[in-house]
Amino acid sequence: MLKTLKISAAATALSAGAAFACAPDFSGVEITATTQTGPYIASALSLAAESWSEKTCGTVKVVEFPWSELYPKIVTTLVSGDDAFDVIAFAPAWAPDFTPFLTEMPAKYQSGDVWEDIAPVYREQLMVWNEKVLSQTMDGDVHTYTYRIDLFEDEGNKSAFKAAYGYDLAVPKTWTEYLDIAEFFQNNVEGVYGTAEAFRRGGQQFWFLFSHVAAYASHPDHPGSMFFDPETMDAQVNNPGWVRGLEEYIRASKLAPPSALNFSFGEVNAAFAGGQVAQSIGWGDTGVIAADPNQSVVAGKVGSAVKPSTTEVYNYKTGAWDSYDAVIDTSFMAFGGWQAAVPSSSRKQEAAWDFIAHLSSPEVSGVAAVTGGTGVNPYRISHTTNMERWSKLFSEREAQEYLGAQRDAVTADNVALDMRLPGYFSYTEILEIELSRALAGEITPQEALDTVAAGWDELTDSFGRDAQLAAYRASMGLPPM
User: Fold this and answer.
1) Looking at the DSSP assignment, which residues form a beta bridge with residue 132?
2) Which of the following CATH numbers is that of domain 142-334+397-481: 3.40.190.10, 3.40.1360.10, 3.10.280.10, 1.20.1250.20?
3) 340: phi > 0 → left, psi -120 to 50 → alpha, else beta; which?
4) How far apart are CA 307 and CA 303, in angstroms?
5) Which residues lie closer than 8 Å to 12 by C-beta, 6 or more apart?
6) Cβ–Cβ < 8 Å for 321, 240
7) Cα distance between the two ends of the chain
8) Which residue intervals of the chain bear CATH 3.40.190.10?
9) How remote is the C-alpha of 359 from its chain's centroid?
10) Residue 398: CB partners within 8 Å, gap ≥ 6?
11) Cys staple from 448: which of 113, 250, 405, 434, with CB 3.0 to 4.6 Å?
């Protein structure tokens, strides 16, 4: 995910208080780390490099490539066995192509309080491939919900909403409530639109659709079945759960600002911080930007919660909807969080893993998480419990809600993982073409998703169904068949 925060320096905070020089001693050792062109993520590497250098007397050279060039640059060096990079910071979707060329995290880093501090969904799933820890999460990515406290607590709005919909105006528990709220503000509060999400092709569009779909298609009894049947690799993208998710995503686009079909996540943040919308869906960046009075007109009024869910989930095994007495606690790991890893071709693996451990340590990553421009969102439990650190950005209520939403999202009972598969961008390209046509009203949601399903099945066969199935099961934390 390309993030949109303003950069500010925090090197002093990262490097302050180093107790001993050269511990461990990597004097004369230079490692090379690569990621996307900064500031986002690259600046987190650079800030950690300064404090690691002071601590170990080694040096880190950070090499940046534009997003479009990063994957081919890394994969070329991995496949060729080139030792150009000692540390790679990469998108989780690329893991299936990279993992054959990565070293396993040393055992000494896989135990203790620092290890247990990593949220389980990252530690036990997104960092693991075929039961081996091959990467370290360095950024948390999960979709949450952001809303305007002042609008929701306005007595006039509360009375009018109750009269119109028959229930109290509050943080939505379901997508139905979310759309009711969007409709209410769109129609009843001047100058305020209902919601903001990313709808632009090439602008993180499909992750926002996935967030809607996860509630309806990620069945708690059938893990890993949201995108494909994990036993046959048949595409599930056109089942009734997906159709309902897409229908509601399209409705949300009509309850957003007039230019919303051109919204990427950057425009979502700007719309919320600019006071244009009552609520939004997206990554944790929205809350941080909206709470900053230098970037926002709604600072001090920013509420946060987990994203909406449902009491009905489609069961692909039975072909029927399953109903529940309470809302299913479902979250979606959109993108999944940048990963850092050490290629097998590196000649400086000990130093490289030591740097990654430093980069992702509670102290260093904790500062990055509250530093504008690093693009780092919480992924450690301690990131969501250090109120003193977050109080510099938020009011007490804002901080409690923001950190609670981040914590609850990654520890939900039913966490839906993003798709990670060889040929990922070929699959998402087919989806975005049809998704854009459906948003424009050219075809129905069912027609769009039927075309996507056919395209995905063709791709799976062209890549090799058995190989894709094995990769998909590994990506979802399922054992080999």
Assistant:
1) 129
2) 3.40.190.10
3) beta
4) 12
5) none
6) yes
7) 32
8) 11-141+337-384, 142-334+397-481
9) 19
10) 287, 291, 300, 302, 303, 304
11) 434
pLDDT of residue 32 exceeding 90, the answer is yes
pLDDT for position 16: 41
pLDDT at 114: 98
pLDDT band at 20 (very low <50, low <70, confident <90, very high): low
- How many CB atoms within 10 Å of residue 81? 10
User: For domain 11-141+337-384, is the CATH number 3.20.20.70?
Assistant: no
Q: Is the pLDDT of residue 170 over 60?
A: yes
β-pair partners for 129: 132
Range of lowest pLDDT (6-10, 136-140, 250-254, 316-320)? 6-10
Q: How far apart are CA 171 and CA 59, in angstroms?
A: 48
Using only the alpha carbons of the chain, give its radius of gyration: 22
Lowest mean pLDDT among 96-100, 101-105, 168-172: 96-100
Beta-carbon contacts of 318 under 8 Å, excluding residues fewer than 6 positions away, are none
Neighbouring CB atoms inside 10 A of 361's CB total 16
Rounded Cα–Cα distance for residues 112 and 362 (Å): 13
Residues in the chain: 481
Q: Distance (Å, rounded) from C-alpha 145 to C-alpha 152? A: 14
Provide, rounded to the nearest whole percent, the portion of the chain with pLDDT above 70: 96
Q: State whether residue 30 is helix, strand or coil.
A: strand
Task: Give the contacts of 356 (CB within 8 A, at least 6 positions apart).
Answer: 87, 136, 138, 340, 341, 342
Class of residue 264 by CB neighbours under 10 A (exposed 0-12, middle 13-18, buried 19+): middle
236 and 217 in contact (C-beta within 8 Å)? Answer: yes
| Three-state secondary structure call for residue 229 | coil
Q: Do the Cβ atoms of 214 and 330 come closer than 8 Å?
A: yes
Backbone angles phi, psi at 87, to 5 degrees: -135, 130
Are the beta carbons of 98 and 340 closer than 8 angstroms? no
